[in-house]
Amino acid sequence: MIERKKRIKPILSLTSLDKLGAGKDSAAYWKINVKRYNPPMQKITPFLWFNGQAEEAMHFYVSVFKNSKVISVSRYGEAGPGPKGSVMSATFQLEGQTFYALNGGPQFTFTPAISLFVSCETQQEVDELWNKLTAGGGSGQRCGWLQDKYGLSWQIIPTVLGKMLQDKDAEKSKRVMQAMLQMDKIDIKRLQDAYERRHPH
Question: Which CATH class is domain 115-196?
Fold first, then answer.
């Protein structure tokens, strides 16, 4: 499991705009690339494709994570291709990580093959993020995975899990793995019991 990188800055490429019917001569292109463009601060940026829910999803995610903010929202102008005033794209930060959200249409949807890995220090943090991200129609899955109400997959993982799984004592790490495979939301106490071979009360 790989922790997510921070300090990423989005940029909407001409290729993405061309797919949506907005070329260099369109008002939509210049609105985004001239008025909204900032020099990129990160090399790689998560680019999330929504079907009309980009702005709503952005505000939802910003409400879930503490160190988060909305950066910008770009709307279609007279040239389209979307209805004038409707949201084309949005940029936001979660815990210092920049994300780009696009209303690209129904052609593509999220898959669990791609997930956002969130490192948590305490059980309270695990519980809070799990409850918020599954609210409104999301669902919990095995081994700390969940899908939120937009279909985006997350892993809500306590940092202690990685340390236990990498323990030099193979029997300890095996017991922790077996315990984790029985969980949806990760329970740190149960992991510690398995690690120490303690029987849960």
Answer: alpha beta
